[in-house]
Amino acid sequence: MQKPARERILDASHELMRTIGLARTTTKEIARAADCSEAALYKHFASKEELFVAVLKERLPELGPLLHRLTADPGDRSVEENLTEIARQAVHFYAESFPIAASLYAETRLKRRHDDSMREMGTGPHTPIEGLDTYLRSEREAGRVSPGADTFAAASLLLGACAQRAFAYDSTIGKEPPQPVDEFAAALARTLLNGISRPASDRSR
Amino acid sequence: MQKPARERILDASHELMRTIGLARTTTKEIARAADCSEAALYKHFASKEELFVAVLKERLPELGPLLHRLTADPGDRSVEENLTEIARQAVHFYAESFPIAASLYAETRLKRRHDDSMREMGTGPHTPIEGLDTYLRSEREAGRVSPGADTFAAASLLLGACAQRAFAYDSTIGKEPPQPVDEFAAALARTLLNGISRPASDRSR
DNA sequence: CCAGAGTGGGTGAGCGTTCACTCACCCGTC
DNA sequence: GACGGGTGAGTGAACGCTCACCCACTCTGG
């Protein structure tokens, strides 16, 4: 036996939730994947629901650190480079966490418990947006972003696009995605910065 | 009895899926809500899974019509007004359809069936993006959008933000949303059009 | 004209299966 | 000898689904 059983159980649950879905992730399947008995699950977790809450709390990745780092120290990269990097990370983050987070909608009881535990920790699905909002505000104060910019709207746009990609294009599994991640991220950052309206100086044409 | 049983069953299933979640929507609950026997369900649908597929196909709203209408005839409203209206509709669309669509991730078998039936109909979660992309391209050709604009990125940004709002802020039920829908939609459209970078003419300050 | 067969929509009871969970018991380590 | 960590064999409940049967209505042949 390699890792301690608790870790193996969490890993196995996480993997099953991602692949066969929350509903089909039964105690029997978890036990088989974690190479232990069903009874062993209950030595480590009081109930299946508590096991799931633990998976959500201990296995889902976070986007916060990157955003905090950039806010604290924007570095010498341009805003566009920073936004591109954020978009790249966000695409990965949502691709990994979205399927599991989404499946909570099938079990509203479990979802409520998870929401509560999130609220206690002062976090939730809205915190990446607020983190990016904060970063953009600091760039605005540094004069690297337009003074009139709506930073919350901008944060919603960028992260929304990344999250949407996770579920709008996973049904097309097998086919390649419409655009490589790097290209997609760069296009988002560029478009968000420049806007799409015809420049005023160009209106006469 | 009012409406035909088939309709009552579809309505009841739809309502239950929204409120208590896909997993807790059992045949017994559906029968009770539709005011008929469990056996009656199977007179109208071959299996529970087929019933769900029917609900998804016949009860989920669509965003396509608005987008096609605007593409065919942009009308005399400005691009910003049109984008604001699209964002408003999209927020409602996603708020209604997202919880159910998301819960499919809990049942990957069912999700695959739904994906297949979507593919046959030539539609899916990516079609609103493509529809908006088409609309923006037509505006670009009409010269009302910057020639260099990446219309796909822009479409991803706008609709992504609307979809994200549906799940990033529904765990905060009880509290009011961070921003009224109309205001949010207007801010998104404005930000997307103008961008957030400091204007070139302003770089000297 | 009308007996009677067929049909669409409905039911109550209950089938087999699977689920989350428990219990009595076991074994190596302080 | 207490105890943390593990097991195999269950348990009751809940699930999706089926079965035999029922009723109201429509069609049809003598």
Question: What kind of sheet is the major sheet of chain A?
Answer: none
Q: Structural class of the helices, strands and pairings of chain A?
A: mainly alpha
Rg of Cα set of chain A: 21 Å
Helix count from the secondary structure assignment of chain A = 10
Write down the secondary-structure element order of chain A.
Answer: HHHHHHHHHH
Largest interface (C-beta under 8 Å): A-B, 73 and 72 residues
Number of strands of chain A: 0
Average predicted confidence as pLDDT of chain A: 91
What overall geometry of chain A do the principal axes of the alpha carbons give? elongated
How much beta of chain A, percentage-wise?
Answer: under 5%
Low-confidence region ranges of chain A: none
How far do the termini of chain A sit from each other? 73 Å
Description:
Chain A has about 200 residues and is mainly α. Helix content of chain A is about 65%, strand content about 0%. Chain A is built from 10 helices and no strands. At the A-B interface, α6, α7, α9 and α10 of A face α6, α7, α9 and α10 of B. Chain A binds a DNA duplex (30 and 30 nucleotides) through α3. Chains A, B: InterPro entries: Homeodomain-like_sf, HTH-type_TetR-like_transc_reg, HTH_TetR, Tet_transcr_reg_TetR-rel_C_sf. Chains A, B: Keywords: DNA-binding, Transcription, Transcription regulation. Chains A, B: This is TetR/AcrR family transcriptional regulator.
